[in-house]
Structures are given as structure tokens and as C-alpha cells.
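Reopening this ticket.

The earlier resolution said the output was attached, but the attachment link was broken on my side. Pasting everything inline this time so it's all in one place.
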Amino acid sequence: MISRIDLRGDALPEGAALRDLLPRAEFDVEAALETVRPICEDVRHRGSAAVIEWGEKFDGVRISSVRVPAEALTKALEELDPAVRAALEESIRRARLVHREQRRTTHTTQVVPGGTVTEKWVPVERVGLYVPGGRSVYPSSVVMNVVPAQEAGVEGVAVASPPQKDFDGLPHPTILAACALLGVDEVYAAGGAQAVAMFAYGTEDCAPVNLVTGPGNIYVAAAKRLLKGRIGIDAEAGPTEIAILADATADPVHVAADLISQAEHDPMAAAVLVTDSEELAAATEAELITQVAATKHVEDRIEPALAGRQSAIVLVSSVEDGLKVVDAYGAEHLEIQTADAAAVADRVRNAGAIFVGPWAPVSLGDYCAGSNHVLPTGGCACHSSGLSVQSFLRGIHIVDYSRDALAEVTHHVVTLAEAEDLPAHGAALKARFGWKVPQQ
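Inline output:
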């Protein structure tokens, strides 16, 4: 059901050589660019009509308007299962607690008497938040995108999610209800590359945005890459992944359950166990067989995900080697199920989010830990962070110097300008002092 990779014995290679030994899904965004390019160009030139036609082609339903009417949002919230509403409200409450603490404050540094640099943090004016449709329904992604944008102070928040044939061309009602709970009334029935293009170029129904965030399939990722520069993006999200670093103290029932929980997202989802315990590996393999047989989405998602090249049990000689492996892998979600898990987790450098010990499974982070579940995939955790309030803020430096403070440093500026053969740079300062460098 799941393959093994044995890295015990010889010293582990480093860097790219180690990464090349680890399982990873194939996710060729570059190849998808040529598929999404005509879609994006069509939306650019024909606006909402193109969004509607591409939605009909890919989602199998013809809609009359891209904008979701306000009454549909109200109705979705009124009809929402009370238990689901309570769970979403608690998810929102916890996410707000964490993300509110991330808000940066303006700070002024006095560089010299009379010379200051202030860094102020300004939210982007308008964002487009993408919420996937398809195999599953993700109201949790509404929460994870909207809450940090709101806590950052973004004024214009728009959400797009694919139209659903089963709901008369509207996004899934639970997604609409989540938007209503969060006070978002600008929602669009648009999915895939056409939704990203709608946000980037604007249409007669949707004003263009400054930034697009949220996970999606390979075509969403490709559209983000194509339109990056016209819009800011959070990341090119690839298939979801979990890595678990575990030793003999871990419970194979927990480990198997957590691997399966990630595999049920998608047949390309990655589930990786890194362990120095042969006994745990064998027990987890046995548990996978038992637990998979008792769950849902087996043939279309879980079995192909676990059997795919992106999933494996990686055997290592020690937890120390296991740390090297998980740092090389750079998992979206990393669980640490070892003795003294907190100390081991503290040594991890590369992960989107780290879940410590047996009582912090990834599923908690997906919904109600308070953390964000929009995280870097495909090894991007070695250089990128998950979605946060910072994703929606821009730092702006404000430089304020007096005449005396400028005079004091002019000779250095002129010297550096001339060293770079940019004399006009120095002249811009000398002009302020009668074309003479002030005496020091």
C-alpha cells in the first residue's frame, strides 16, 4: 500500500542529493502555463462572459451571473446546520486570536540626531481570496484566507469559489455561509484559472485586486505564475503533504490515522513517515491496511495517494538523521511524534507548520488550532511561510532628515555615488548646499 525508502547505514547525503532521494509528487506548473494562457487572455478581453463560458466547460454548469446575490449568502447562513455553524464560529474565534497578535506596528529609528527612518505597515487595498471546490468542500479555507486579511485591515475582500452543478451554479452553500459569518458579501461563482484572471484583470462585475491568495489545483497555480507581477500572490500551491517524524514511542494507530487524513484530500496528496524504528514502520503498515478498509474515499483518493511515488515510509538510523531528512523535505505539515517532541520540534528549520506530540494532529491545524492551514508545499517551506497577517501588509520606509543631518552624511553619499559612476546622485545632494560638499 505504501513503499519504503531505506536510508539507514551510510552517512546521509546533503542538500539536493538528499532531496532527490525523497518522495515527491510530480507537479509541472510550467507545462500547465500553455493551458491557462488562452483562458486568462479570454477573460482579459471578454470579462464575465468568458468567466461564465469557461465555468460551463470545466464545472459543467451555466450561470447567469458571476456575482453571488446577497440573498443567497443570507439563505445559506440561515440554513446552515447549527453544529457546523458553531464549529465555524469557534474556528474563526481561534484564528482571530492568533492572527491579531501578528499585526505589526509602526516603528521609528533615530539614525542620527535629526535623521529618522520610520517603517509603517500598510495593508493592500483589495484582495481576491480563492477557495477550492472539486472533490471536497472547504469552508475552513474561507476562514484561513479571510481572517488574516481582515486582521491586517484590508478594506476590499472578495472571495471566488467554483460554481457547483448541484447548487444551481452557486458555490457550495457551506462556503457561502462561511463568507456570511465573516461578513464577506462580495462572492463570485468562479473557479480555476478564470477566477484568478478575473481578479487580476477585473471584469464588469469584479474590480481588479492587488493580491490573490488561497490554494487550488495546478491550473490555479499556473494562472498565479502567469499573472504574478500584475497581481501579488501568496504561493503556487501544489499537492498537500504530511511528513511525520516518529520514533518507537509513537503510537502506530495515531501515525496511520494521520497519514490517511492527508491522503484523503487528493490522489496526489503526499503522506511520508520518517522513522528510526523498524517496529513502528511495520506496525504502521499494518494499521494502514486496517484503517483504510474502514474509511471513505478509498479507491479514488486514499489508495492512489498512499501508493503513489509521493508517499513512503523512510527508514533512518536515528532521530538525528530523521531531522536532516525532514529539513531536506520541507513539509507543508510536519508532525513530531518522538520522545521529547517539543525539543525535537525546536530544532526543525524547514516546515510550513509543526505539530508537536500525539495530541496536536494536522487535522487540528486544518480547523481549530488557531494556526493557518494555507501553507507552502513542494519543499517551498525552506524559503516561504504560510499565510498570515504579514501576507496582506506592505512595509513602507519613511525617511525624514533635517538639513544638518543631511549635511553630516553628504560626503559619504557623494563618495559612494562617484564610486558607482553615478555623479548625478551626488549632485542631487550638492545642489542643496550650493554645489559644495559640506565641511566635516
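Reporter confirms the inline version is readable. The first strand starts at residue 3 and ends at 6. The mean pLDDT is 96.
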